[in-house]
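Structure ticket #2291
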Amino acid sequence: MKVIGIVGSPRKNGNTELLTAHTLRAISEEGLDTELIRLAGLEIKPCNACMVCREEESCPIDDDLFPIYLKMKEAEGIVLASPVYFGSATAQIKALLDRVGYISLAHGKPFSGKVGGALVVARRAGKNFTLAQLTYWFQILGFFIPGSTYWNVAFGREKGDVEHDEEGLRTAWNFGKNMAFLIKKLSG
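Resolution: structure written out below.
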């Protein structure tokens, strides 16, 4: 059983990545395999509405998306993480969600019944909208979404700030534990 954490921040080793790695440690402690995927440094172009994905399970846009899509299909769990950029998720993760969503909806909804959830890091505001934005994606594709002890948000601006948000870290950790529990239950 595997869970992948996709970090939608354009900044490597930043707060969003730290929070995601923290959550993945909680999951791996429960015996599941984990993998962290950084969108930073990858090219994920926006959907151009060509509709090729309706005919075949592919995307003709030549970038780094399709190998990530295949990893997402193979995983039992997916964590999507984004910092807040002007009250919303980053363009990188939004492009990934749009294209992965369209491909999957046209090809049997392969994410239905998987477990997923979002993590959000904010300097101050925009966290609730961004968390909802990412959560809606999980809902429309049929994921089961475990809860935690609070909303899956943490605070930080400069690299490493999130490590001082004890409640945010605890919430992310508990989310990871709940995610692992649910995946195990669903796997029988």
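Closing remark: The domain at 2-187 is CATH 3.40.50.360 (Rossmann fold).
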